Amino acid sequence: MKLFYGLVIHSKSIDDLRFLPNTALVVDHGKIVFIEDNADVDKIQQQHQISAENVIVLKENEFLMPGMIDTHIHAPQYVNAGFGLDLPLLGWLNKYTFPTESRFSDLNFADEVYTRVVANTLSNGTTTAMYFATIHKESALLLGDIAHQIGQRAFVGKVSMDQNSPDYYIEEKSSAIKEIEDFIVTLQSKKYPNVQPVITPRFAITCSMDLMKNLSQLAAKYDVNIQTHVSENPAECEVAVSLHEGCRDYVDIYAQANLLTAKTILAHGIYLSDKELEVLHKYQTSISHCPNSNCSIRSGMCDVRRLMTQGLHVGLGTDVSGGFSPSILDAMRFAITVSNLLSLSKSEDYKPLNYKDVFFMSTLGGAQALGIGDKIGNFEVGKDFDALVINLAQTDGNLELWLNESIENRLSKWIHLGDDRSISRVYVHGVEVKEGASNVLRVKRLGGKRKSTEIN
Ligand SMILES: Nc1nc2[nH]cnc2c(=O)[nH]1
Ligand SMILES: [Zn+2]
């Protein structure tokens, strides 16, 4: 058992951000068993019979918050993060993305990259990641092993794609179906408590209707989540609809393939019509908003307020490497900026997203979008303890504190100016997983040996 005591910040809903001073929070076997603000910490320590070394008292400039959730990240594209941003989506996929992803048939290469991406995103406070891997089953399974060993909560998707892809990076339909079923069965058989397989048709351009229908049957058979992309770029939308005869619009393609469920998350959704939003709402399908990617490969600006007004759950995604940064703090800032820019052409009563909204989206909102809002996302008794200790008094970096600043302003400063240096502890399911630098995690996993694999 562990007892945390200090300032706690979490969201109960998008309009209900709580700042809870002097809060006692007790964790047992990874779960939150008690929480009370303005608490008598000694009394609670005694009541729960917690030894002194298991009491963590936060310092004056520290606070505890829920772990952050990246609802859309391509693990293999971590290699490309920060370059190749000169082309829009379809050209970018062909020139930069497919060649890099095709290299993940090499398990040594996959081991090196996946260890780095898991360690680095954890270090940046991503306690849960919804990953796209590649079409290679073995390396996707390896990503699951790595997330488990290092301690990140992860959904891992072996990508499925059987058309309109380069010869060197494509599956045949029958083998795509066999491989994904093997992948699900194998990953589930490992019984990792925090790592789940996810059905991952890349998008409607690279998947035949028949493949997608088979994938939706497997999702139902094994009760797993589904992820794909939707309506990211105007040229993509046009090609997708032209390829699937008899489908009214982009969302209808996935509806006809039975891929829309309450456990489905679609990345982007920039150009969705009102009718498409209605359909997504009917199926309780969520959206992953990836504003860095939308800006960097110039896909467009997604009106998150509109999606939320339609009742959709919207989480945040880094979409590495369409997005250049693996940090969810960066996604929060981009989301605010895009929303501000959109508001310039809206009426005065349009409310752009603010720091409280994006805090929600990166925690409870992300959990709801992944269909696990009852398990993580905030601090409620019965939920798993996925949490970050934030230290605002770090001396490096741009975050400066002044006397008598309100807690609200300090949180806003952290969201706008913080980085991994201010994330001093990271917990997943009650286990501390950030031990100083991400290097420590890497070395631990690789048994103290650096791999000789060259990344180039
Ligand atoms: N941003 C992004 N969009 C996609 N659509 C299909 N594949 C991808 C991808 O890898 N990244
Ligand atoms: Zn993506």
Determine the oligomeric state from the structure: single chain
The total of beta strands comes to 17
Biggest beta sheet summary: 9 strands, parallel
Continuous helix count: 16
CATH topology of the largest domain: TIM Barrel
InterPro entries: Amidohydro-rel, Guanine_deaminase, Metal-dep_hydrolase_composite, Metal_Hydrolase, Metallo-dep_hydrolases
GO molecular function: guanine deaminase activity; zinc ion binding
EC number: 3.5.4.3
GO cellular component, one term: cytosol
Topology diagram in text:
Layout: E1 2-13, E2 16-28, E3 31-36, H1 41-47, E4 55-57, E5 62-66, E6 68-74, H2 89-102, H3 107-123, E7 126-132, H4 137-150, E8 153-157, E9 159-160, H5 173-189, E10 195-201, H6 209-222, E11 225-230, H7 234-243, H8 250-256, E12 264-268, H9 274-283, E13 286-289, H10 291-296, H11 304-309, E14 314-316, H12 328-343, H13 355-362, H14 364-369, E15 387-391, H15 407-417, E16 423-428, E17 431-432, H16 438-445
Parallel strand pairs: 1-4, 6-7, 7-8, 8-10, 9-10, 10-11, 11-12, 12-13, 13-14
Antiparallel strand pairs: 1-2, 2-3, 5-15, 15-16, 16-17
Helix pairs in contact: 3-4, 3-16, 4-5, 5-6, 12-13
Which characteristics define this entry?
456 residues; alpha/beta; Urease, subunit C, domain 1; TIM Barrel; 2 domains; 4-stranded mixed sheet; 16 helices; disordered C terminus; binds guanine; binds zinc ion
In words, what does this structure look like?
The protein has helices at 41-47, 89-102, 107-123, 137-150, 173-189, 209-222, 234-243, 250-256, 274-283, 291-296, 304-309, 328-343, 355-362, 364-369, 407-417, 438-445, and strands at residues 2-13, 16-28, 31-36, 55-57, 62-66, 68-74, 126-132, 153-157, 159-160, 195-201, 225-230, 264-268, 286-289, 314-316, 387-391, 423-428, 431-432. The strands form 3 sheets. Strands 6, 7, 8, 9, 10, 11, 12, 13 and 14 form a 9-stranded parallel beta sheet that branches. Strands 3-2-1-4 form a 4-stranded mixed beta sheet. With 456 residues, the chain is α/β, with parallel strands linked by helices. The protein has 2 domains: 2-66 and 380-438, Roll (Urease, subunit C, domain 1), CATH 2.30.40.10; 68-369, Alpha-Beta Barrel (TIM Barrel), CATH 3.20.20.140. It is 38% helix and 21% strand. It is built from 16 helices and 17 strands. It binds guanine and zinc ion. The site of guanine has 11 residues, from helix 2. The site of zinc ion (ZN) has 6 residues, from strand 6.
